[in-house]
Amino acid sequence: MLRTGFFNLFFIVCSMRGFFVFVFLICVSIVFSQKRSDSLLRELKNAETVAEKTDLYYLLGTEMMGQEPEKSLQYLKQGLLLATESGDIVRQSRGYSGLGSLRYMQSDFPIAILLFQKSLTLAFAAGDMIQVARQYSNIGTIYDISGRYPEAAQNYFKSLRVFEYKNDSAGRAFVLNNLGIVFIEIGQPNQALDFYKQALKIKSSLCDTLGMASTLNNIGTVYQSNLNDLNNAALFYSKALILYEKKDNLYGVAFATHNLGKVKSDLGLHNEAIPFFEKAIELRIELGDLTGEMQSRQLLARQLLSVGKVDQAYTFAEPCLKQQNTLKTPKERADLLETLSLISAALSDYKNAYWYERELSILRDSLLGIENSSKIHELNIQYETESKERKIVELNLAKQSEQQKRYYLSLLLLALIAIIIVSLLFFRQRQKALKEKNQRLKSEMEFAMVETKRRELELRELTQNMLLQTQLLSNLQEAVGNLNIENEKLKADMQPVSEMVAQSLLNEKGWEAFQMRFEQTYPGFLQSLKANFPDISYVDQRLCALLKLNLSTKEISNLQGISVESVNKQRNRLRKKLNMDAGSDFLVFFNEIML
Question: Which of 366, 304, 361 is nearest to 329 (CA)?
Fold first, then answer.
């Protein structure tokens, strides 16, 4: 599966398979030729403008990246210095991108990200959106290689949106291919296929034959390795092979042929797989691709063994043993040892079979350790990358802190002034409202007090009138009684008068009027009394009302038309009903009830 990053000065290609690594190295050796460097140096001497010199320094830096990184660094820095002095932010962005590419090739990923981010910022400032898209792609590539796939996808999507906005089809296809790789890594092969197919459609419209072949190969790998759809895998590998043959690209032909052999092998069609591996070996020998040759030899030996051609299998497998260090992964070496063990056993060479099996056992035991170490290494890289990123972010924040502090302090000051003004207005309005409310409450309380005093006065006047009336009636009754005693004849004549006086003393209408006026003056008193002491009678309530008015025993006896002794008995009975202590004050008790 092909990993790529779309750099400003060139495309960096990183392969997961030996073939593409070999192709990349061949390309690098061509690009960084000494002849090209000498030509650029001659042009630099004759350059007249700062822009020309800057561009030539960048080209020289790019040329030297693979062979002489120190010289590459010097040329790129010199170009960046000229761009900075001239204030050319477009070329400054290119310079930081070139430095990021150099750091990327040196596997210094944290610094590379920071340099690409600087290039991105300058590209935004210059309005160079194509450069913006490329830097997003560069950053995504580093996250991709570091195993930080969500961050990689996020940056690739940003790059894709910009390329779409600029209608850059080649850029879109490039990023879609990278997104396919990321989604394979995160376990979403169907989504990866969608990205690959979009890229394939664009490359087809651009007549990019080799790009189409590469994408077809990627699609075949997804079907074979991730979806276990071997028929579709063979279909796409075959299409890729046709395109590679059309362009006479021997590397692509060898790779596609090898992949088709693997598909046939996975399908159990060993006889059909053999010709594909034989052709792949022939091409890789011609190309000098030793690693690819050993991979194809090992798989061919396995096919020959499967069809019973043990001697031929050994012939192809035995050279792999001598060159096993060229095999890319421990798993490939383990497969080779397993193949040799099976061949030796089939040849009854049990000594070698035992030796291969023992080496295989040791290698398999180490595979788990290697896998764990790889995970630890990836986590360590991720940790270091995040740590360096945090440090740079902190430095950038520190540089901006003074300006931000002044800005935020200004905002804070304005906010405080606004808050103070609003608070003062609110406070004044609230004070005014509270003052008006207090005045209104005070007026209402004063009115209530006046009204209460008026009612109390009216009640006392009514009570005094009742006392006076009762006193007059009592005196009249007493006088009538005396007359009866002195003159028996007159007794019969005055009897109706005595009865009328007695009825007037016991007139309930007068008491009802008194009770109504009392409840208006002391609202809720009798209800609260009845609620707290349900057993008290109507007579007890009337006595409580008279005691509430602080009338004397004599006055109460006159109002009720009973003796003082009877009143005292009523008071004692009332104390018991109210659970009052002997000698306790009724007024205090009544006030507590109201509270």
Answer: 366
Mean predicted confidence (pLDDT) in 444-451? 73
Instruction: Give the whole-angstrom CA distance, residue 512 versus residue 466.
Output: 12
Residues 172/178, Cβ–Cβ less than 8 Å? no
| Separation between Cα atoms, residue 545 and residue 568, nearest integer Å | 15
The 3-state DSSP class for residue 274 equals: helix
**Residue 459 and residue 29: Cα distance in Å, rounded?**
121
The answer to whether 165 and 190 are in contact (CB under 8 A) is no
- Reading the block at residue 185, the tokens are 């890594």
Please give the biggest Cα pair distance in the chain: 169
Q: Per DSSP, which regions of 273-358 are E strands?
A: none
pLDDT at 583: 77
List C-alpha distances in Å: 441 to 448, 449, 450, 453.
Answer: 10, 12, 14, 18
Helix (H, G, I), strand (E, B) or coil at 19: helix
Tell me the per-residue pLDDT of 317-327, one tens digit each, with 9 for 90 and over: 777 766 665 55
Q: Which residues contact 515 (CB under 8 A, 6 or more apart)?
A: 526, 542, 545
> Which of the pair, 361 or 31, is modelled with greater confidence?
361
Which helix (H) or strand (E) segment holds residue 1: the answer is none
Contact between residue 138 and residue 118 where contact means Cβ atoms under 8 Å apart: no
> Which DSSP symbol is given to 326?
G
Residues 187-206 have a mean pLDDT of: 93
> Helix (H, G, I), strand (E, B), or coil: what is residue 307?
coil
Enumerate the H helices of 169-288 as residue ranges: 169-185, 189-205, 209-221, 230-246, 250-266, 270-287
Taking the mean position of all CA atoms in its chain, how far away is CA 182?
Answer: 22
Dist CA 339 CA 514 (whole Å): 122
Separation CA 454–CA 447 (nearest Å): 10
- Position 500: which residue type? M
Spatial CA neighbour of 507 closest among 563, 458, 560, 547 = 560
Q: How far apart are CA 282 and CA 264, in angstroms?
A: 18
**3-state DSSP call for residue 3?**
strand
Mean pLDDT for all residues in the chain: 79
Question: Which amino acid, one-letter code, is at 2?
Answer: L
Read off the amino acid at residue 355.
W
Local structure of 13: helix, strand or coil? strand
Q: Label residue 235 by pLDDT band (50, 70, 90).
A: very high
DSSP H helices in 506-537: 508-521, 525-532
Alpha helices in 267-289 (DSSP H): 270-287
In angstroms, rounded to a whole number, what is the distance separating the alpha carbons of residues 164 and 13? 22
- Rounded alpha-carbon distances, angstroms, from residue 261 to 12, 234, 243: 29, 9, 18
Q: What is the dihedral of CA 75, 79, 82, 86, to 10 degrees?
A: 180
d(CA 101, CA 91): 15
Render pLDDT for 34-56 as a digit per residue (tens, 0 to 9).
Answer: 667 778 777 877 878 888 888 88
Answer yes or no: are the C-beta atoms of 86 and 50 closer than 8 Å.
Answer: yes
Between CA 131 and CA 125 the distance in angstroms is 11
- Chain segment 546-578, per-residue pLDDT in tens: 888 888 888 888 777 788 898 888 888 888 888
In 3D, which of 373, 366, 316, 392 has the Cα closest to residue 109? Answer: 392
Those residues whose C-beta lies under 8 Å from the C-beta of residue 121, and which sit 6 or more positions away, are none
